[in-house]
User: Fold this.
Amino acid sequence: MKPCLAVDIGGTKIAVAIIDSGGVRNRNQVSTPSSTDPEDMDAVLEQLLTPFLADVDMVAVASTGIINNGILTALNPKNLGGLNEYPLQSVIERILKKPTYVINDAQAAAWAEYQTLELDMTDMAFITVSTGVGAGIVINNELVIGTNGIAGHVGHTLADPNGPICGCRRQGCVESIASGTAIGQAGKPFFGDSCDGEMVFKHFAEKNKNAQEIISTSAQAIANLIADLKMVLDIELVALGGSVGLAPGYIQLVQHHLSQQPKPYQIKIQSAVCGANAGLIGVENWVKHNL
Ligand SMILES: [Zn+2]
Assistant:
């Protein structure tokens, strides 16, 4: 049997690689088309995937957005422009003529992180804090996807009913307070209109009080989210990833805020370890696990 082709479709880049016992090989990466025309996405995928046609037997895809029965939709329509309701699975099946399986990228990354844990752990969550806030949840040794592919979109649970309007149009989602985008927005009054999350973290590293407060507010929202997940799902561990989640000093702040909660809410929080290939590795392993 030939190996599996893994594809990771993000808001800024699309990565592809063959994954087999030797690990990740023939990795290639292109920018996600900024065009809102689905035909541009078709063309990018065709160019990227066709060279692998003879070398693989199936395709495993991790993608940003909600994957509902192979169709890509967005909670935050701004993230995907014209790609809302994009038939991702059937487009790839048409290009490569191989069985194709698609799940959300944070779900895939959660499965990758889960594979790195000790064997007796059955329930965990992976939370990525980056441009947005995403997550994947493993319960009883299985990745939870949901009937409509939405399971794990905990960035759109409520953090503050009086908070900012989220990209999904609900008010006060965790993402609208904790994400890198939200951090950059909160920094504008102090650091200027060009402020982004990275700039706030730069000031945070220099112990600027305003930056410390902004990052702490983000970390507190994530700590509360983790406490909620513990109560809803009785998970045993959270792996924290993403550019914000892995930024120096951030995980310690999340741990600090969670430590202020009563004992039943306490849970181990550790840094995610799978890095940039988490989606590719996770979705390939998940497809093999389910075949
Ligand atoms: Zn939202």
